[in-house]
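=== Discrete structure encoding ===
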Amino acid sequence: MTINIIENLIPFNFTEVKAACFGTGNLNGESFCSPDANLCPNRHQYLFWDLFHPTEVASQLAAVTLFSGPTRFVAPINFAELAEA
């Protein structure tokens, strides 16, 4: 799913999928939780919060995909189909 987002930015409203929103160093991905860490002003446009975690928007997208996403992401069935079974 992450690769799909990176390759198709527009439908997901992300403008930054390489750099982290919060951190230091190259692409804000070398360190985090330090006094000199950078914080982006528009976290809803970022895929990654820090070098390990997705942003809130990316996490919500993952949750919706797990619950009701297509079989190319959730196979053999998603959680909604499982609940109906």
About this structure: The first helix runs from residue 2 to 7.
